[in-house]
């Protein structure tokens, strides 16, 4: 499939999706979200790929849902097409890890897309925000829910109710992003992390992701029980004996990665 609003690049075991609507600050219109969904499904189904990177330009990861496409919609339109959910949730369904590499603006749906990824590496130029209140609506792709889990109620209320932007340093201090790096190093650092993840045992990586996500959905006791069960299940894969034998023999493990 050829894409017009994103670029898809496969570098060894890493799939890189670059949001690419430069004239619209990578605003997320239907075409882009359809193409993003298709690219994510392609990478999820590709045995060679062990980790996915989503990035934008140096100016914008994405400045939100496309306001020009949204402006004339009626309640009937958004209800009938299940607007924001129908083609917006693929990133949160993918079982392989996804890193968001964010430079410039990640606003509204852009911030929400970054939060659907497993973690965010931000350039020192990054700016996050949920400014929907300034255009008469509220976040519609998880901004009130995921942001609150990331940074807590007080700060999430501040962001959602005032619509202000948060810079990279504040996003790091608040726990929204995992790391902040100089803008020039963003892709290299994110690619390094993605390559590292892709080099580990694939089932262990996928199960680790599923387990951390469980922490958001259940009680501590249930989560601990889930973790123990899936920890045990990893002993059913050859990668466990290979990984441990390699440690003891002081060599690099040869994981099957499939
Ligand atoms: N939708 C459509 N077009 C957008 C856009 C968006 N979200 N964000 C920027 N653009 C377009 C602008 O209209 C402009 O296009 P024209 O040249 O044709 O006028 C172009 O991108 C460049 O933008 P600016 O001239 O505004 O650039 P700037 O540097 O002055 O400001 C910005 C950059 C701060 C990101 C500003 O564009 C902005 O505030 N954008 C809107 C942010 C926003 O409100 N996002 C939330 C959208 S709603 C949403 O996302 C709902 C949800 O929860 C899913």
Form type: globular
Count of individual beta strands: 10
Give the bound compounds: acetoacetyl-coenzyme A
How many individual domains? Answer: 2
User: Under CATH, the topology of the largest domain is which?
Assistant: 2-enoyl-CoA Hydratase, Chain A, domain 1
Return residue spans where pLDDT drops below 50 for at least 5 consecutive residues.
none
Notes on the protein architecture:
With 258 residues, the chain is an alpha/beta fold. It has two domains: 6-198, Alpha-Beta Complex (2-enoyl-CoA Hydratase, Chain A, domain 1); 201-249, Lyase 2-enoyl-coa Hydratase, Chain  A, domain 2 (Orthogonal Bundle). It contains twelve helices and ten strands. The strands form two sheets. A six-stranded mixed sheet has the order 1-2-3-5-7-10, sandwiched between helices. It is globular, with a radius of gyration of 19 Å. The relative contact order is 0.12. It binds acetoacetyl-coenzyme A (CAA).
């Amino acid at each position: 499939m050829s894409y017009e609003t994103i670029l898809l690049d496969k570098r060894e075991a890493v799939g890189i999706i670059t949001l690419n609507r430069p004239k619209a600050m990578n605003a997320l219109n239907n075409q882009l979200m359809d193409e993003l969904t298709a690219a994510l499904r392609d990478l999820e189904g590709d045995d060679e790929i062990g980790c996915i990177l989503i990035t934008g330009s140096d100016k914008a990861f994405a400045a939100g849902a496309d306001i020009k496409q949204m402006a004339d919609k009626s309640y009937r339109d958004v209800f009938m097409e299940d607007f924001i959910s129908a083609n917006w949730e693929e990133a949160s369904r993918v079982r392989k890890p996804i890193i968001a590499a964010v430079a410039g603006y990640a606003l509204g749906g852009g911030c929400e897309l970054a939060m659907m990824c497993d973690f965010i590496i931000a350039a020192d130029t990054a700016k996050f925000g949920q400014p929907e209140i300034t255009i008469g609506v509220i976040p519609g792709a998880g901004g009130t829910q995921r942001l609150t889990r990331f940074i807590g109620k007080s700060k999430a209320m501040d962001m959602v109710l005032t619509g202000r932007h948060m810079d990279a340093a504040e996003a790091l201090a608040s726990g929204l992003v995992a790391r902040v790096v100089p803008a020039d190093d963003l892709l290299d650092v994110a690619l390094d992390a993605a390559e590292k993840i892709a080099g580990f045992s694939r089932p262990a990586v996928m199960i680790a992701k599923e387990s951390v996500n469980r922490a958001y959905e259940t009680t501590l006791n249930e989560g601990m029980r889930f973790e123990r069960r899936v920890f045990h299940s990893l002993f059913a894969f050859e990668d466990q004996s290979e990984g441990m034998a390699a440690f003891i023999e002081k060599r690099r493990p040869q994981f099957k990665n499939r």
